[in-house]
Design brief:
The protein has 316 residues and is an alpha/beta fold. It has 13 helices and eight strands. The protein is globular and about 55 Å long. The mean pLDDT is 96. One of its GO terms (molecular function) is NAD+ binding.
């Protein structure tokens, strides 16, 4: 595939559930037009309602020139929705067979220089692109939920993806205010979800073993390391924990104990009993709070946090 000079003005959003609707709102806020499609009953109405609900947060962040939540069209038919788009953000169910077929259909009707990006949480693009005429334009564009607020996007190609497409996709996301990263190898779950999974594994294990309650585990993260992780990643936090001598000193003194903790971590199974225990713990926490206020309050604080980090300019 030759290097494309296509300007992205219109994005096709395929699948308008939680992730797709959030992406659609964000693209609109960045001054882009959106053509959306979803086969689910009532999807159009839910999409418009979600965009209305998310728009105040996007206004607080700051709308780009030309931002207009009315610049969205919805189509029941996939092929019709993709007519005239310059970039596609796919957000279908996390089922490999379904995505292979979906990408085959999209690939069949779009010019070869239009990027097909998937929001897949863990599937491999080498598999997703396998039935495409132009597999070189298929790439992962995995956001972190909610995409309209969280900057991170993981961008990685499959075995047949063109390096130019990876570069173009990274540039597009950066140009609309995202923080794209490029994993060097395909792995299930990519980077961020694998890191989350490692934490979830031990959180479930601690509940399973009766070491701590669900509420105590949530408090341990939300009021402890989670506050630091919101500002800096695990390696930079280790570096700062080493004082003036930095990460070398920290690893010399705590490397052994950390490795010992690794060996002591659990290997839980997602049994019905464990799922019930965790769910019960979550429901008990919710008795004290108004769950309907969680999302707007989370979004308000996320907007402030991201803005503060951006304004600082002193953190990596």
């Amino acid at each position: 595939m030759s290097v494309s000079t296509r300007v992205i003005n219109t994005v096709g959003v395929v699948g308008t559930g939680v992730i797709g609707a959030s992406w659609a709102a964000y693209f609109l806020a960045q001054g882009l037009a959106v053509r959306a499609t979803d086969p689910s009953a009532g999807a159009h109405e839910r999409l418009l309602a979600t965009i209305d609900a998310l728009w105040p947060s996007l206004e607080r962040i700051g709308l780009a020139l030309g931002a207009d939540k009315q610049r969205i069209e919805f189509f029941a038919d996939l092929e019709t929705a993709l007519s005239g788009v310059d970039f596609v953000q796919e957000n279908g169910p996390e089922k490999e067979d379904l995505k292979i077929d979906l990408f085959k259909r999209m690939d069949a009707v779009l010019d070869a220089d239009i990027v097909l990006a998937s929001s897949s949480s863990g599937l491999l693009m080498s598999r997703i692109q396998s039935a495409c005429r132009f597999p070189e334009r298929v790439v992962l564009g995995h956001p972190f939920n909610p995409p309209h607020l969280i900057p991170l996007v993981e961008v990685i190609g499959g075995a047949q993806t063109s390096p130019d497409v990876v570069e173009r996709t990274m540039r597009f996301y950066a140009d609309i205010g995202k923080r794209p990263i490029h994993p060097r190898k395909e792995v299930k779950g990519h980077i961020a979800n694998r890191l989350q999974a490692a934490l979830w594994r031990e959180a479930f294990n601690l509940v399973d073993q009766g070491v701590a309650s669900v509420s105590d585990i949530d408090a341990a993260i939300a009021h402890g390391p989670g506050l630091r992780w919101a500002l800096l990643g695990p390696f930079m936090n280790l570096h700062l924990s080493g004082g003036a001598a930095g990460i070398e000193h920290l690893l010399d003194h705590l490397g052994g104990p950390i490795e010992d903790w690794w060996h002591d971590l659990g290997d839980p199974s997602m049994t019905p009993e464990l799922k019930q225990k965790v769910a019960q713990g979550v429901r008990e926490m919710l008795q004290t709070y108004a769950e309907q206020d969680f999302v707007p309050e989370r979004d308000r604080l996320l907007v402030d946090l991201v803005a503060a980090k951006t304004d600082s300019g002193q953190l990596p």
